[in-house]
Amino acid sequence: MKTMKRAGLLALAMLAAGTAARADELVIATTGGLMRNEMEKWFYLPFTEETGTEVIPFDIEVPDQWARAEGMIRTGNVEFDIVTATGPDLVDKAEMLMDIPCDTLENVKEYALPGACQPKGIARTTGGMVLTYNTETYADNPPESWADFWDVETYPGPRGLPDTGDRDWWLPTVALLADGVAKEDLYPLDLDRAYAKLEEIRPHIAVWWKTGNQVQQIMRDNEVAMTMAYSGRALKVIQDGSPFAMAWDGAIRDTGYLAVLKGAPNPEGAMNFINFFYGAADGHPGFIQAVGYATSSTIGLSQLPEDEQKLYATYPANYEVLVDPDFEWIGANRDELRERWTNWLLQ
Amino acid sequence: MSMAGFLQPDGRNLSKAGILLLMAPFFLLIGFAFLYPLLSLLSISVTEPQTGLQNYERILDTPVYGKVLLRTLWIALLVSILSLFLAFPVAMAMVSSSGAMAVFITACILLPFWSSVLVRTAAWAVLLQRNGIVNDLLQAIGIIDAPVRLLYTQGAVVVAMTHVLMPFMVLPIYGALRNIPPDYGRAAAICGAGPLRSFFEVTLPLAMPGVLGGFILVFLTALGYFITPALLGSPQEMMIATLISQQLREFLDWPFAAALVGVLTLFVTAITLLFSRVFRFDRMLGGQV
Predict the structure, then answer these.
(1) B160 is in which domain, residue-wise?
(2) Structure confidence by residue, pLDDT tens digits, B181-221
(3) What CATH number did the domain enclosing B281 receive?
(4) Residue of chain B nearest A92, judged by CA positions
(5) Which of B130, B131, B252 has its CB closest to that of A70?
(6) ipTM, two decimals
(7) Which of A228, A286, B108, B285 has the most CB atoms at less than 10 Å from its CB?
(8) B47: which residues sit within 8 A by CB, 6+ positions away?
(9) Cα A82 to Cα A31, A39, B62, distances in angstroms
(10) Which residues form the signal peptide (chain A) (predicted)?
């Protein structure tokens, strides 16, 4: 309903404008609020200043964005240039996305971390789906891993897990970690074993959270004592003074990618922006501090003080205990993963 | 059109053509904004990915979808019954009060009715959270030792939906009660009926059109309700509207979502027809005695 209303409004706005997007405009879809505001401040406005291309930010949650993009492609009227993609989206939605010319973008060649530039998308921000716990509830004996999350005897208290985004593989993944599977042996996921383990924790989940705002809210309101959270969201709650901490062992690497829709009105501008993003050194420290996620630009990272780097997924000690998901396998099995998840949760 | 064609020969009432002409904008709007999108959605459900009923077979073959549908019917029924029992006394009070009191009760019903459903639902989230007023109160008077889970439960959904939908129950019942001449009650008393007997044998039967009208209004609205279950419920106790939205927005499975819409439409139509067959609709909505 809300989506349809907004689609209607957008259509009206486009009619009122009288024209489709122009060549000196670039429409970038991201989640609203923090991410939109900080991208605008540190990158969109400097980009406009340097190139004269006006960036039009569009606020939308990622699933809504794909629904909208699907509709745009169905009707042949593509209005987004750059969209936000998750790792699996790069495989799943590959036919909707343009190839990123990793070898020809100067700043990408120079500064991108290894693996940051993928065929269908380029890393914007990296965080993790991280175990976050209340440091007052577990003052004497903090949980350290997903096995501890499952251990309700030693660590009693209401828990939270996501029912949004990519939970259909996030949760089987951490369930297997909790069941003793080694990080390098996770994929392909043993779903029967994973769901048997998930069944154990199910009665202890007080909140299946739906959005990044909600996971922050349930931490602040003590609705949960520990939860899986986006690391950047957890970081904000911690910095705001709530008694929470992150346990990085077994956190799932979660990279948000910039991707370009096929049929985008301004593909050239989109590639220019990606190149600008990797080279605009001045923007990165402020942006990383504000959104709580690290970029994959080496000149960006190196400008943060060492002790602050520890709070981010790309800090070496954190990075080496992250789970690196096998997006090829996940993408190839996405329908089964989703069906399994929906049927399990609704049963 | 001349006045002669617009009116019946007696020159007082509208002719059939006149009625149709006046109704035309309404039917155009319904056709454009409701029937057309609904039908095009339903056609997707039987034409994609292939022509056939495979989307409907998937609903039948997967037990969880039936479960979601049954749960939706159950919650809608529960909400309707609860709001009936809460609304009837309120409607009676509205009818029998006058002056400032009547204004006050009406305001209590109508003011929340005019505020956003989202706001009313969010207010319940504040009340029911772990450190919320309800948990604090229950702990203060010693009923519970530690906060209990109230938010994100089926109970939270039922309570909040009852609150949100209650005006739809109060108003038709109020309409029906107001149409009962006060003489009837006095006549019953003169004939020796006590207040209880007078209520059950005079007031209630005469108020039935309003009761049924309110009941079907609340029940059908509750069947397709989205915001409250999405915000206060747990995905483990999902209702059908949330499931449809999830299939559309997250899984981009339009054909399957359309099939779910088809099933919901089927239920709503069947229930509406059943009601209109058993109880006469014009009486329900008009509240005429």
Answers:
(1) 54-286
(2) 988 888 988 988 888 898 898 889 999 989 988 999 999 99
(3) 1.10.3720.10
(4) B251
(5) B252
(6) 0.71
(7) A228
(8) B255
(9) 12, 13, 38
(10) 1-23
